Amino acid sequence: MPMHNKVVNGVRDFGVTKGATGPHIIECDDGKKYVVKFADNTKTAVNEFVGHALAQAVGLPVPDAALVVLGADLVGASSDLTYRVVGAGPHIGSELIPDVMDFDQFGRLRQQQVVELSNAGALPGTVCHDNWVLTRDRDRSDNHLVQALNGEFRYAMVDFTHAFTGPAWTADAIEQGSYLRVLMPVHPFVAVSVTGVESVEPTLGKVEAVMDSELEEIVSAIPQSWGMAEEERLLLVNFLELRRGLVRGVLTSNRARFPNWRD
Fold it and tell me: What does pTM read for this prediction?
């Protein structure tokens, strides 16, 4: 089920987990735990919502996500949420993945033994997504997770808070960013996986094929309670439509940033 169609209710708050935005781990009525980021006076929830939906739309490996509805009682029982004036209602949650490590931890493991990602072919595609939505911090190791399960190691792309120029974006920032041709930061482990256009083509082709109507549907599904003005919604759709056609040129003109790129 697409993330923007899935709604669950929070039933138990396990408190703050690591992350600059202070997300909480919350168990929901579907029996799953979610890493929840909150709709506040920034665009954090909007960025997570749209960034995840777009990654899912082009087939990148992301955890399942949902709108997590928090009741007033659950919010009131948390001193942290009360202090931060987090409101009851829908917030954005990404399903908690057990047994994970970040790229730094995975790198240390690779120094000790021969281990590979079973879905390593997805790594180059993340660069397409990040340059479509202008993710500013994908060079951080904790924005890439590796799940170890039954001897298999699988990559998962997480954290879209710093898409669209960052969680404090304005209409002016979005308009200016629409035409930006600077390559977004890339983690070294991802950079070496990009070997040329053919390595990014599966995802790049999907990005370029996303229809205007799909973008409009995703943006229109952002909850009204998050206070996003209609002008901002229109600007965000326009931003995605414009940047969709720029990604290929951004990657090829910055080929020197990828050490294994071969023409």
Answer: 0.94
